[in-house]
Design brief:
By secondary structure, the protein is mostly helical. Helix content is 45%, strand content 7%. The chain has a three-stranded antiparallel sheet with strand order 2-1-3. It has a three-stranded antiparallel sheet with strand order 5-4-6. The C terminus is likely disordered.
Length: 301
Amino acid sequence: FYAKKKKKQKQHSTTFATMGGDGGSIPTRIELVRVKQGKEKVSQEAVLVAVWQYCSLTREPLEPPLVACELGRVYNKEAILKHLLDKSSTPPDVADSVKHIRSLKDVKQLNLTENPNFDGTNGTARFLCPVTSVAMNGRHRFVLLWGCGCVFSERALKEVPGTNCHKCGRAFEEDDVILLHPTKADEISTLTTRMQTLRKKAKAEKKKNKEAGGEAAAGVDEAKAKEKKAKRKEAGEHSGRDDKKGPTVNSAMLAQIQADLKKSEAEEEEKRKSKAYNSIFKKKGEKEDYGKITGFAQTFF
């Protein structure tokens, strides 16, 4: 009897919990209260994979030839060329991220190692490390040697230490190693400081070389001037020029002399005509004296 009564009470409570007094259903809390949805979290791995597959400037798929800046960002070379030729075509929010790229001297073309198993469909990375063969897909850290442009995994440089490139054999220093696509704030700060230091050093060296070149050019010009003066002096001594002939005559002086000569000839001609006319009325036996005709040219020369 008690078992049947207990079972009946249980069925009644279950019905009351699911049914309302008016025959409707009773809503639960989750149906009455709306909880604010949080932002969907994207895995860091997915972000890195996307970064290593797309250009940092245009967000288009990476296509060789590729270049990297001094901050470790990778770009399509064609995109950088278009940006440098017409910076107004780059959106302002993106242009701010590449303002440190002033010319092609601020980027380095990457010497990458192709993945022989890459076919573009199986999700494999297009490039890999030539030493460890790890894929360049964002899951492994890669570095760039700025001097030669060769790219290796960071693990390769640690496992095979040395001061020569493992691919081309060119010597490099610690400052030549640039981490590609750094994610930590201290890594980005280190690369920024390195870039600013090297640019100041290059500017100082350029100024120094320019000053040294200017001094050298001044010395060469002075030597040439002395040599030219000496040749001119030597040519004057052997030219057979006689100082007794008087000063040299330039074009202005010659024009003035010719004008004075013509004027003097005209005056003499006028006097001669006047004397010839007067001679008609002279008495016989009177000696005619026309005088000596002297011109400016005769007295000058």
